[in-house]
TrEMBL record:
<dbReference type="GO" id="GO:0071949">
    <property type="term" value="F:FAD binding"/>
</dbReference>
<keyword id="KW-0560">Oxidoreductase</keyword>
<keyword id="KW-0486">Methionine biosynthesis</keyword>
<dbReference type="GO" id="GO:0106312">
    <property type="term" value="F:methylenetetrahydrofolate reductase (NADH) activity"/>
</dbReference>
<dbReference type="InterPro" id="IPR004620">
    <property type="entry name" value="MTHF_reductase_bac"/>
</dbReference>
<dbReference type="GO" id="GO:0035999">
    <property type="term" value="P:tetrahydrofolate interconversion"/>
</dbReference>
<keyword id="KW-0285">Flavoprotein</keyword>
<comment type="pathway">
    <text>One-carbon metabolism; tetrahydrofolate interconversion.</text>
</comment>
<keyword id="KW-0028">Amino-acid biosynthesis</keyword>
<dbReference type="InterPro" id="IPR029041">
    <property type="entry name" value="FAD-linked_oxidoreductase-like"/>
</dbReference>
<protein>
    <recommendedName>
        <fullName>Methylenetetrahydrofolate reductase</fullName>
        <ecNumber>1.5.1.54</ecNumber>
    </recommendedName>
</protein>
<keyword id="KW-0520">NAD</keyword>
<comment type="similarity">
    <text>Belongs to the methylenetetrahydrofolate reductase family.</text>
</comment>
<dbReference type="Pfam" id="PF02219">
    <property type="entry name" value="MTHFR"/>
</dbReference>
<dbReference type="GO" id="GO:0009086">
    <property type="term" value="P:methionine biosynthetic process"/>
</dbReference>
<comment type="pathway">
    <text>Amino-acid biosynthesis; L-methionine biosynthesis via de novo pathway.</text>
</comment>
<keyword id="KW-0274">FAD</keyword>
Amino acid sequence: MITPLYSVELFPPKTAEGMAKLKLEISQLNTLNPAYFSVTYGAGGSTREGTLDTVNWLRELNIDTAPHLACIGSTREQVRELLTHYQTLGIKRLVALRGDMPSGMGAGERGNFHYANELVQFVRTEFSDAFSIEVAAYPEYHPQSSNPARDFENFKRKVDAGADGAITQYFYNADAYFAFVTNCQRSGINIPIIPGIMPITNYTQLARFSDTCGAEIPRWIRRQLEGFGDDVESIRAFGHEVVLNLCQQLIAGGAPGLHFYTMNQSAPIVRLWTELHLPTK
Ligand code: FAD
């Protein structure tokens, strides 16, 4: 029986004011005792400084931290340097991704990696087992995949290259997650597949994200959220019930943990965590 992993994800703020606010949110989230805090990284190194500042701050507080590393647009040397730095900070876990090419970046700036499986392979070759590696999984399929079977084969490449676990893109349909896990079991993939959980607090922002990342907002949820218009309180109350219910279904169905996309807001996560009776400090 593996211990379930409950983790939280942050993104690096762009301003000093954002960083000051994030520190307050981190102190609230840290009372929950998450297994680790992950910190996103912009492909092509576009958030490199912000990611490093956030990771450094978490490590100063001695918090288990998993930096994301999106390899597209980076050279082997840049990745090696970053990972060597992470080793000196005592980091033991990474989230290894391809990322998306920042707009305006030309084909000549793609760097040395094409897909995330190449990054996983690189980390294993150069750093052996120094890092536990999480990769991304897409129960509703990656938006660029030409067909589901090929997308699943590509997911398996990352596992075969040495991934220790996977975190899913967010979804609101638990069946998509359970079907993906069944597919993994049938294909001999035994790593934990941790559902990524996106709280619902802002419909416009969620709809925009979902369009680009290929996550479906089921019609009944979308219609309800649209119906609330600018009534933020009703959006939050309904969104909380939907996500709480989703998490309960996932836990009851045997999900090996939950990874919360916090959007740098602690309050919705603290409320979910408490009502789900997840372990805390
Ligand atoms: P891959 O696994 O490489 O897959 C990308 C696409 O290429 C898929 O369509 C796949 O089917 C196809 N493919 C994969 N391998 C091959 C191959 N060998 N040959 C042919 N086709 C292939 N983005 C960021 O920029 N920064 C972040 O910090 C970040 N964090 C994320 C965290 C999680 C948990 C998730 C789910 C996503 C995150 N993303 C992040 C978004 C992610 O970078 C994008 O979804 C990106 O488009 C794909 O990254 P990937 O690692 O899944 O790519």
